Write a sequence for this structure.
């Protein structure tokens, strides 16, 4: 199984740290050339490999960690997304509700990635917490997951476990997923909730 992170800002780097902590190789890509990411990637660890966008999109599991509307550009990079699992770590804070057609932001993102197994996840924690060791207070930091595809959740939940987090499935995008998404300038109730599941 191969992994990549698209977007190498604060959230992308936080996710990269989670992979590096466990020695799991992950490709990283952004609008910048791979060479421009090299210094930051090397500082995180040898498991973090800068690549071009097209090379990073060859991964089986792809984390989307870009500003919200940039998902459209990423979606156009492949003709279809069959065989890919996409983990949406974006947030649409400040995006007017009418621009989303009344849908949850994750539903808008999911529509762009035709054929992908789509899971909302890793977006409710601030980047600093996401980057930190998830083993805390005698337990593991919780990561919430939501998806309309039941078959996609076990794979992402298993990856959460490998990375040291405690996955909690909230259900579908329009129900459980709505608990971890911004709506206009309002944050959903589970955003920024730093919860720990006892071991």
């Amino acid at each position: 199984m191969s992994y990549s992170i698209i977007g190498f800002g604060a959230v992308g780097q936080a996710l990269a740290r989670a992979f590096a902590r466990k020695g799991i190789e992950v490709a990283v890509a952004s609008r910048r050339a791979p060479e421009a990411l090299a210094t930051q990637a090397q500082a995180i660890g040898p498991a973090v490999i800068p690549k071009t966008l097209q090379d990073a999109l060859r991964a089986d599991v792809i984390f989307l960690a870009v500003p919200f509307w940039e998902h459209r550009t990423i979606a156009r990079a492949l003709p279809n997304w069959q065989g890919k699992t996409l983990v949406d770590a974006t947030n649409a804070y400040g995006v007017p509700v009418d621009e989303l057609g009344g849908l949850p932001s994750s539903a808008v993102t999911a529509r762009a990635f035709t054929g992908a197994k789509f899971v909302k996840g890793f977006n409710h924690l601030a980047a600093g917490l996401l980057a930190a060791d998830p083993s805390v207070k005698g337990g593991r930091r919780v990561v919430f997951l939501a998806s309309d595809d039941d078959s996609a959740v076990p794979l992402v939940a298993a990856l959460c476990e490998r990375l040291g987090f405690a996955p909690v499935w909230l259900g579908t995008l329009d129900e459980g997923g709505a608990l971890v998404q911004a709506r206009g300038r309002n944050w959903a109730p589970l955003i920024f909730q730093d919860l720990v599941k006892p071991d």
Remarks:
- The two ends are 27 Å apart (CA to CA).
- Strands lie at 3-6, 26-29, 48-50, 61-64, 85-88, 117-121, 135-136, 139-146, 166-171, 196-198.
- The longest strand covers residues 139-146.
